[in-house]
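Cross-posted from the bioinformatics board.
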Amino acid sequence: MRKPCCDKQHTNKGAWSQQEDQKLVDYIQKHGEGCWRSLPQAAGLLRCGKSCRLRWRNYLRPDLKRDGFGEDEEDLIIRLHALLGNRWSLIAGRLPGRTDNEVKNYWNSHIRKKLESHRHVGFTRLRAEISAARSKNQANDPETFIDVNNQVVGFNGGKLEPTNDSSSGIYINLDLTLSIPSKNFESSDEN
DNA sequence: AAACAATCCAACCGCAGCCCG
DNA sequence: TCGGGCTGCGGTTGGATTGTT
C-alpha cells in the first residue's frame, strides 16, 4: 500500500489564505519549484505538497493571465480538443498563460454547452477554413488533419490511427505540432 | 426580500507514468 | 529489471456567487 502524500491530520484544506499564498510565493521566488513534498515544511506551510503545487500552478504563477478567454483562445481550444480530446495539459500548453485546470473548467462550463446547443452552427466557420485547407494540405501532412465530423485520422499515443467513421472526408489543418508543452514560454514557468 | 436553482471555479482525490537507486 | 517514491494529469467535488422566481 502506498503511503499518503502527506500527513492529512496535520495539514490545512480548503481555500488558501493570503498569508499562505504569500509564504508560498516567497519561498518559490527564493528557491524555485523544487521538491513539492518537502516544500510545505520548508516554506512553513501546513499544506500537502500537492496542494502547494496546484495553488502555484493554477493561481499564483506570475505568468498567468487573469482575464477571460478571448474568442481566438476559445476557437483554439475547440480545435485542440477535437484533436487531442481531454488532454487538458497539452491543450493548455498551447495557450500561454492558461492552466490545464482553467481550460478544463472553461470547456466544461462554456464551450461544451455551446457546442451541444449550436453544434452545426459552431462548425460553420471551421468549415470555411476546412475548404481552404483541404485542397492545400490534405495529402501533405496527414497527422495535422482531423475530420471535423467524426475523425478520419486520430492521434493516439503518438501514433496516427484511422478511426471508425470517414463519412465526410472533410479535413481541417490545425497547424499543430505536438511538441513538449510550454517549451515556447517556459522561462517564467520553470524559474 | 427570501428561497431556490444554476453556474463558476478553486481545490481535492486517485491513478498513471516517470525517474532513480 | 524491478520496485518505490514523486510528480503530473484528468475527473470530480463543494463552496461561493449570480440569476430567477
